[in-house]
Amino acid sequence: MIIMAEIPSCPECKVPTQVIEGHNWLNSGVIVLVVEPTLRMAFVECENFDFLFESIEKIVGLSIERLLIDIERKGTRDYFAPFISEETKRMLRSHELPFESLSKAAMTTNRMNGLGRHDMVSLRYDVEDPEGNYITTRCSEPYSLPLACGDLAGATESAQDMEYGHVTHRELAPGVYEMTAAVSSIPDGLVGRLERKQYRHREGDVELPKCSVCGGPAALSTYRWDLEKGMIRSTVNGRRVGIFHPSVLDPLFEELEEELGEVIPEAVIDAQRRFVKRGSYSADEIKDEEAFRDQLALQGIGNLRRLEKGGKSLNVRLDNVCLHLITIGTIQGLFEMETGSDSRVEWSLSEEDDLEAEFISI
């Protein structure tokens, strides 16, 4: 993690250097963190997240915000922990390094990852009396409100080896929130639950064209980084994207399905299908198989092996898939936009996370 006043970017593709140096686009259609290859990442549209979460809450009749905050807390802790050495922690404890400087570096990283802008309001870090420790920030245009709260807690505890289990937020203005994470043990009901999935690499055949200067995927040049706001948008379709850990959402959906049944995957798929059909998506996105394959690999969603169209059907195989329910809903929405009719989907997911799906017009 780099502590900086200015954020260096590639002169050719304009992508922040830290983004390219910190992430690895593999030939399996997967993105991983360079310093922790078992931590899978994704470069995906994020404006649908809170819509999906609200759709699930309507189905279950309960808030899932606490689950979302906790699972994101774990993912963000695991993201930042490899960057923070024991020597750095020693310097923090002895006050040779102000904790505020490390927090601001994490906030800068979040801005580069398109997750919104956090500005410090106040904090307390006392090694001798840690129970009163907290951090409060003002967050503007978060990619997801509960996930941004989890980011604050996870980034803070990654450097302190303390659990920041008490997280609150309040809206100051449209799109602006004050968030506080405080030292507190994790509620018993969440201990041992919702652990992230670790990625195990399998070789693939994805070869994304690279930027001639920085070596990152050349297609990243079609996105604009607004580092002041902490936002990334496609210059092609205007959609907002962010770099985050998909390995935290899949366990959430799986646990909710275990508790509540098939209604959960159906709800996620249908909510994403509806989001796609009402948003800035185009049926052209699945007309060119190679272009769609490259786009999925750029996002870190997986390796598209098959995209076969029949008269009223679409057959898909996607290896190493993540966010499979959201991906199914996205493809179904695009398919319905192309055919102009509703559809049903039959799908299966292997233990190796290979997805087979067939979409049929009805």
Write up what this structure looks like.
- With 362 residues, this protein is an alpha+beta fold.
- It has a domain at 262-361: Trafficking protein particle complex subunit 3 (Muramoyl-pentapeptide Carboxypeptidase, domain 2, 2-Layer Sandwich), CATH 3.30.1380.20.
- Helices cover 35% and strands 24% of the residues.
- The strands form three sheets. A six-stranded antiparallel β-sheet has the order 1-2-3-10-9-8. The chain has a four-stranded antiparallel β-sheet with strand order 4-5-7-6, covered by helices on one side. The protein has a four-stranded antiparallel β-sheet with strand order 11-12-14-13, covered by helices on one side.
- A hairpin with a 2-residue loop joins strand 6 (166-173) and strand 7 (176-182).
- The protein is globular and about 70 Å long.
- The mean pLDDT is 90.
Number of strands: 14
Helix content percent band: 25-40%
Distance between the termini: 51 Å
Give helix and strand order, one letter per element, not per position.
Answer: HEEEHHHHEEHEEEEEHHHEEHEE
Please state the structural category. alpha+beta
Characterize the main sheet: 6 strands, antiparallel
Large-scale geometry = globular
Q: Which strand order spans the largest sheet, edge to edge or round the barrel?
A: 1-2-3-10-9-8
CATH architecture of one domain: 2-Layer Sandwich
The fold-level CATH name of one domain is Muramoyl-pentapeptide Carboxypeptidase, domain 2
Class of one domain in CATH? Alpha Beta
Structure annotation, total helices: 10
